[in-house]
Amino acid sequence: MNLKNKDIDFSMRIGELVRYLRETGQGFPLCDRLLFCGVNAGMCIRSGKTSEAAEFIEEADYIIEMAVVAGYLTTHQDVHIRADCNNLLKMLNGGESQAGATTWVIDGDNYVENAHSVRKPAGFTADSSRNAKSRDNYEG
Length: 140
Fold this sequence. Notes:
Blueprint: H1 3-23, H2 31-47, H3 50-69, H4 75-92, E1 104-107, E2 110-113, E3 116-119
Antiparallel strand pairs: 1-2, 2-3
Helix pairs in contact: 1-2, 1-4, 2-3, 3-4
């Protein structure tokens, strides 16, 4: 699938994530901004504005990361959409890694950033009070 076919797919996935965040009733404060980033990234990809698209994708990725750290999403829920962000950034840069893009995954008690292990933020727990059981159903 080429880059132009991914514009609507990415925007729709972000839209589904925003709908999920709103339906859980937990009031994630950046839902509107996340939707704005997702839609505008797709529009920029479609119109060939790759540098602008990359900025919107990076912002969406950051907002999703914030939702995980704040407990609105679990790391299991964000892994696919954040992989989409990173893959789109690579495609926009001709297969090159995006300089500012960071991939974080959980490995035991650590976050792993680009094969470098660092400690989780103080007070972070994967089972925080906001991580309701019903949110585990979102597969992103």
